[in-house]
From TrEMBL:
Predominant localisation class: membrane
Entry-linked PANTHER family: BPS1-LIKE PROTEIN (PTHR31509)
Name this polypeptide is given: Protein BPS1, chloroplastic-like
Membrane topology value: Single-pass membrane protein
Length: 352
């Protein structure tokens, strides 16, 4: 993949950004209302699918993979909505284009950070495999090697990824982008901005959850106050409350990770490590064998989960990149447009 302290944080950098777009100044036809209602109903349903039935599901790799899948679907929905609106690119306000391009490049940065962390976590699987292989032998010499591998795994897993540490700044910037651009006398524009607001809230929230999970800290969690006037507000708030609270409680209890599969492996390693460090003659063979087998199964589940989640993150990267490329292609086809990103004008080009 290549690209081009307080957990209860609330951001209002430009006044209150969490307001419903007023329909004053333009008339929404029944067709536009139906398009918007359908989009928001689907968004609400996808948010409900992510509300865990029990706490054990929160921050499992399968839950995180589902979150990425549903996030991809929501971003595809916004592309469908734009098509349904039949809003020519020439009618797009320049600030909408600025906002989209700026947000997309930040999301690509976050995807790259997440992918690097998933790859780093999966690298530890090799150390576990080496340790478990050595433990299949009764040789004291092999036990010493297994201890070294397990020690290396623990140090590797407890280290921090500098790319993840930078996600907090990116997320803060994305929160600022939640402020909705003003739309004058354009019913279609109002529909587009309201739909994009829902996409942005869901995206920023899930990215903050992933960043908190990978960073080992609840400081990157975001608490967003969405107005009840949005039809998807209630499922979003329910999801945000249950997930954020569980992450916060988990870290406050001193656990180094909220990833359930990783925690399972770590708990088994903590059993193995002291067992093979002592007098080798006193090690009971059968209990050790069972623990080694259980650790092997847990390690395989962790590795498979990391691989599946990495694919989900890559799929999201491709969805964001494809949307960005499509917009830039249409800009090039239509007319030369100067876009302002991060305070400086740049020429955006696509190479066929």
């Amino acid at each position: 993949m290549s690209r081009p302290q307080d957990p209860h944080r609330s951001f209002f950098p430009f006044g209150n950004p969490f307001r419903k777009i007023s329909p004053k100044g333009s008339h929404m036809s029944p067709q536009l209302v139906a398009i918007l209602n359908s989009f928001e109903a689907t968004l609400a349903e996808r948010l409900r699918k992510l509300i865990p039935k029990n706490k054990d599901e929160i921050l499992s790799l399968s839950w995180m993979t589902l979150a990425m899948e549903l996030l991809c679907e929501t971003h595809n929905d916004i592309k469908t909505l734009i098509t349904d609106l039949d809003l020519p690119l020439s009618n797009w306000d320049e600030k909408w284009i600025d906002m989209y391009l700026d947000i997309s490049v930040k999301l690509l940065d976050i995807c790259i950070a997440f992918s690097s962390e998933l790859s780093r976590l999966n690298q530890g699987h090799l150390l576990l495999q080496c340790a478990l292989h050595n433990l299949s032998s009764a040789s004291p010499k092999q036990f010493v090697r297994a201890c070294s591998s397990l020690d290396g795994w623990r140090q590797h897993i407890n280290s921090r990824n500098p790319r993840i540490e930078k996600c907090g700044t990116i997320l803060d910037n994305l929160v600022g982008s939640l402020n909705l651009p003003k739309v004058k006398n354009s019913a279609k524009g109002k529909v587009l901005m309201q739909a994009m607001y829902g996409v942005k809230v869901k995206t920023v929230f899930l990215c903050s959850v992933f960043a908190a999970a990978f960073s080992g800290s609840a400081k990157k969690l975001l608490y967003m106050d969405v107005a009840d006037t949005y039809s998807w507000a209630q499922p979003f708030k329910s999801l945000q409350n249950v997930v954020n609270e569980e992450i916060r409680v988990t870290y406050s209890n001193g656990r180094f990770t909220v990833l359930t599969e990783l925690e399972t492996v770590d708990a088994l390693v903590k059993i193995l490590y002291p067992t093979i460090q002592g007098d080798q003659d006193s090690v009971e063979t059968e209990p050790l064998r069972k623990t080694v087998e259980e650790t092997g199964r847990a390690a395989e589940r962790l590795s498979r989960g990391l691989d599946q989640l990495a694919k989900g993150v890559d799929d999201f990267f491709q969805v964001v990149l494809a949307g960005r490329d499509a917009l830039l292609y249409n800009l090039r086809k239509g007319a030369t447009v100067s876009v302002r990103i991060s305070g400086s004008n740049i020429a955006e080009q696509i190479v066929d």
